[in-house]
Design a protein that fits this description.
Blueprint: E1 23-26, E2 31-34, E3 37-38, H1 39-45, H2 48-57, H3 63-75, H4 81-89, H5 96-107, H6 123-144, H7 158-167, H8 173-186, H9 193-203, H10 208-219, H11 226-238, H12 244-253, H13 271-287, H14 291-310, H15 320-330, H16 338-359
Antiparallel strand pairs: 1-2, 2-3
Helix pairs in contact: 1-8, 2-16, 3-6, 5-6, 5-10, 6-7, 6-16, 7-8, 8-13, 8-15, 8-16, 9-10, 9-16, 10-16, 11-15, 12-14, 13-14, 13-15, 14-15
The structure holds coenzyme A.
């Protein structure tokens, strides 16, 4: 409660600021649905492209609708040449998330404008952004390794084409499937911080490029999408499964947080974690190397144990980022790219939310209570000391 008697909700926890038809997070029971479909049904059965259709068009596609979407995604994957040329001049040490945010914003420069000089924000621009996001990341992976980017292939899925653009090799079914499932699980998550950011930006009638750029900027912090890369660094730091408990105790004793654990909404284990855990196991069996999976498994057990000892009245469970780390590491993706991969899935939700916001818009503009000093008389600069105080 503030001094004015108004309730201050720092972090907006539990505050309802809008409505959406896209997804529903039921934190108490650990359920996530996209337009009413449970992700427990979608993750093993639906392709990422079906989810793109579901979220953008409002229903699951029929075969010809899905073919049409795949054709459009395939046709829109290539980046404008000047942007690729610009990327080739970026410092090779640039953080992939900085590159993705900058180039995504740059796509607006090559997008047509209407008679009022404004970029169009419609479902086709959304598909364009979804299609190009993975191309940006794959191109940067090659450029920073001193290699030429590989042209996208229109005949592959978003997931398979991304892996192909990194290596020039069409991935195995199990690898493409793992990434596809990851994208399905990340596609939307109601009013999370980056999505809210996109909606706030769109509510000012800024265009979809601006809104998605804002979402990317918001995703990067390690209390949100940045936790994916941070969870990978954790696996690296743990090194071997037997060191997990010592590591977890060390983190807590320094007053830090165990990355990939805890969630604002879920009061039980994040429903996406079990699918990613299963995928991590499948990939490690396929590769014949279970290093990442084994470390993650023992770290989750150790974290549950020490977090419970630390706060007996609060249960903290693994979130989506926890098992993202072994899945993406097993796919050969560099740890500093994990947050970008999160964005390549979440771009679908961001776009859907921007279009939903624009369809029934009201400027989002909350209030704050003022807790600064009360105004005094203005003191001309000639009569002020260093600290803004009047000279004697
Ligand atoms: N490790 C250690 N302690 C944790 C923790 C974690 N991963 N997550 C929460 N806690 C503790 C906090 O320290 C806090 O303790 P305090 O009350 O003594 O200060 C308490 O649990 C509540 O944390 P709070 O940050 O208020 O909860 P929240 O609901 O806002 O937190 C997160 C949600 C995601 C920000 C938080 O769990 C976190 O920082 N997790 C690690 C980062 C992460 O994985 N982010 C990705 C989210 S999908």
């Amino acid at each position: 409660m503030s001094t004015t008697g108004l309730v201050v909700d720092r972090g907006l926890e539990g505050v309802v600021v809008g409505s959406t038809m896209l997804s529903n997070v039921e934190g108490k029971i650990g359920r996530l649905t996209y337009r009413g479909f449970d992700i427990d049904d979608l993750a093993p059965n639906a392709s990422f492209e079906e989810i793109v259709y579901l979220l953008l068009f409002g229903h699951l596609p029929g075969a010809s609708e899905l073919e049409g979407l795949k054709r459009e995604l395939g046709a829109r994957r290539t980046l404008p040449e000047p942007l690729v040329n610009a990327m080739q001049r970026f410092p090779k040490t640039s953080w992939p998330m900085d590159v993705m945010r900058t180039v995504t914003s740059g796509l607006a420069l090559f997008s047509p404008v209407n008679e009022r000089g404004e970029h169009v924000s419609d479902v086709h621009v959304a598909i364009e952004l979804i299609a190009k996001m993975t191309t940006i990341l794959a191109a940067w992976d090659r450029i920073r390794r001193g290699l030429e980017p590989i042209e996208p292939r229109a005949d592959l899925s978003q997931a398979a084409n991304f892996l192909y653009m990194r290596s020039g090799k069409v991935p195995s079914e199990i690898e493409a499937d793992a990434l596809d499932t990851y994208f399905v699980l990340l596609a939307d998550h109601s009013f999370n911080a980056s999505t809210f950011s996109a909606r706030v930006t769109a509510s000012t009638r800024a265009d979809i490029y601006a809104a998605i750029t804002a979402a990317l900027a918001t995703l990067q912090g390690d209390l949100h999408g940045g936790a994916a890369s941070a969870a990978y660094n954790t696996l690296l730091a743990v090194e071997t499964p037997d060191r997990a408990e010592t590591y977890a105790r060390g983190v807590l004793s320094r007053g830090e947080r165990i990355m990939g654990m805890g969630h604002r909404e879920y009061k039980v284990r994040d429903p996406r974690a079990k699918h990613l855990e299963a995928m991590a196991k499948k990939l490690s069996d396929y590769r014949g190397d279970s290093r990442w999976y084994d470390i993650a498994r023992s770290l989750e057990d150790a974290s549950n144990k020490v977090l419970q000892e630390n706060k007996p009245d609060k249960k903290i469970y693994a979130n989506v980022d926890f098992y993202t780390a072994p899945v993406l590491a097993d796919l050969g993706i560099a740890g500093d790219e994990f947050t970008c991969l999160f964005a390549c899935g979440r771009i679908v939700g961001w776009s859907g939310h921007v279009l939903e916001q624009l369809a029934d818009n009201r400027l989002i503009r909350p209030q704050a209570t003022y807790v600064g000093p009360t105004a005094g008389p203005f003191i001309p600069i000639s009569e002020r000391t260093q600290n803004g105080v009047a000279k004697k």
